Amino acid sequence: MCGTCGCQDGNKATVTNLQTGEHTHIDAGGNITTHTHDHDDHHHDHDHAHDHPHDHDHSHDHAHTHAKAHGNVGTTIALEQAIMQKNDALAERNRAWFAGREILALNLVSSPGSGKTTILERTIIDNKNKTNIYVIEGDQQTANDAQRIKDSGAPAVQINTGTGCHLEADMVMEGVKTLKPKPGSVIMIENVGNLVCPALFDLGEAVKVAILSVTEGEDKPIKYPHMFQASDVMLLNKIDLLPHLNFDVEKCLDYARQVNPHIKIIQLSAKTGEGMDEWYDWLKAQSAKASEQAFE
Amino acid sequence: MHEMGIMKSVVSIVAEHAKAQKVKRVLLEVGKLSAVMPDALHFCFDVIAKGTVLEGAKLEIIEVIGQAKCRACGQEVELHQIVTACACGSRDLERLSGAELNIKEMELEAA
To answer: What is d(CA A161, CA A140) in angstroms, rounded to the nearest whole number?
Structure first.
């Protein structure tokens, strides 16, 4: 539930535009409602502009109706349908949308407290005049993270998933519609801090980037293998704290490669700036790739 | 617990196909590498099916073992769990299957 207005019980997610304060609610059926709260005006005659665009992805499923009649047992109907079909179709739509606009979209995944938002803040500040960065922030509650991003100078939108433990493709699409990113820009999607569920939900990103900090256990990659296998890059953050910890870096890198032999690992500290240049070089190369691929 | 959301999709897809008919049985195919736990699915199914045409239906789950090809030696490898090494020692495996999450079939009650 949205911590700001609390008026959307039963909704799946709330998208808050930090630039305008406008709220968009996505309900469980995919219906979308947008409205602004005039927080100085306590009349609360919610002028809900119910603009339900009804663009639900009506998956015209191929229910092969091979109806086998088993006497009086019942009728068995073969469905052969992917459970994640709706999300996957929307994710592909997002991917095509990004590709056509030469936009690099990254899905940042980690446990809570790994330093995702701090890495983003520093990335935005250090690349101020070089890259257009937009941020979609996912959290169960509060717009604190999106506010931090906005304060560092990038347009941000906050998605509150309520009780939901991950972002889904339709929420990202709603966030993108709100942000209206420029062609050639970079969209950072900061997923809900969780190393389990986000591995399963494609958002249409080019790459999943897993973030692990040295204040966590070095065995996280083998404890949560799905996430580290689904990610192409791992950022090992907070390395400035290594002298104070018993974190075995080599062991951690070895675990990560056991799970995913091709994972690219960048060791950095968003606090001191150490290693950040390697991350920026990778970003630059990926962004260039997104431009080239648009015309393939 | 993402099994809840996944089960909501299952119930909504099956209910849509069943129209108003009562569903007796649902058969799912779940890959061993799908990050979804069959036990959790069973638990969620009873909760979510309540009050729908699926209430009281039997949930059957076929678990599918993953298949991969070793990029080092070319051998086919069975994946019973997500972190696996080939007999040759390489962990560089190209996954061919094992992440399935499908609704195979449903059985409707005889009219």
So the answer is: 5
